[in-house]
């Protein structure tokens, strides 16, 4: 039952919003995560990639969600894309431990990087040895990423 509830919550989060009709249109903070408490800029260009549109970004986050729900354990965090063109990646913890600190959140990002490096895209682009999750997000056309414990802190990474 818990998996069905989590799946329903994830599916609802992937439904596009109408412009001006939800909190995201008014700035996003406090609707999906607490106010941003820290921020950094990621400004590195590794490889030229064809422009990725909204469908690619939504498809990417949907595939991650499908993989999480197919796993035998319940997901500990969700990843989704928001905004009119789905240019804002959001990662929010579903429990009180996985992102208890920013350091645990960074460890999860490192794990996501390891998984991404095994993809054909990273290997064929010859960037599997040094590209990160941030590089992937930037190549997909995300403008920023917010990672949050869902309770007390949120950290924004701006891609330039």
Keywords:
160 residues; alpha/beta; five-stranded mixed beta sheet; 18% strand; disordered N terminus
Q: Can you give a write-up of this model?
A:
The protein is α/β, with parallel strands linked by helices and 160 residues long. The protein has one domain. The chain is 36% helix and 18% strand. Strands 1-5-4-3-2 form a 5-stranded mixed beta sheet. β4 (144-148) and β5 (154-159) form a beta hairpin. It is globular, with a radius of gyration of 15 Å. The model is unreliable at 1-26 (pLDDT under 50).
**Strands side by side in the biggest sheet:** 1-5-4-3-2
Secondary structure: helix percent: 25-40%
What gap, in angstroms, lies between the N and C termini? Answer: 41 Å
Tally of separate helices: 5
Major sheet characteristics = 5 strands, mixed
Strand content: 15-25%
Q: What order do the helices and strands come in, and which of them pair?
A:
Layout (H helix, E strand, L loop, with lengths): L1 H12 L24 E5 L11 H17 L6 E6 L5 E6 L8 H16 L2 H5 L8 H7 L4 E5 L5 E6 L1
Parallel strand pairs: 1-5, 3-4
Antiparallel strand pairs: 2-3, 4-5
Concise summary:
With 160 residues, the chain is of the alpha/beta class. The protein has helices at 2-13, 54-70, 102-117, 120-124, 133-139; strands at 38-42, 77-82, 88-93, 144-148, 154-159.
């Amino acid at each position: 039952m818990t998996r069905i509830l989590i799946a329903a919550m994830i599916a609802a989060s992937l439904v596009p919003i109408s412009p001006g009709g939800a909190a995201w249109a008014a700035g996003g903070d406090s609707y999906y995560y607490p106010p941003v408490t820290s921020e950094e800029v990621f400004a590195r260009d590794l490889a030229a990639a064809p422009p990725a549109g909204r469908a690619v970004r939504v498809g990417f986050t949907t595939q991650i969600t499908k993989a999480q729900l197919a796993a035998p354990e319940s997901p500990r965090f969700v990843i989704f894309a928001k905004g009119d063109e789905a240019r804002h990646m959001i990662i929010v913890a579903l429990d009180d431990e996985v992102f208890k600190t920013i350091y645990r959140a960074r460890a999860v990002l490192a794990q996501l990087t390891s998984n991404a490096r095994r993809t054909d895209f990273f290997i064929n682009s010859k960037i599997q040895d040094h590209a990160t999750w941030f590089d992937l997000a930037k190549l997909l056309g995300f403008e920023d990423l917010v990672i949050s414990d869902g309770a007390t802190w949120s950290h924004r990474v701006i891609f330039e």
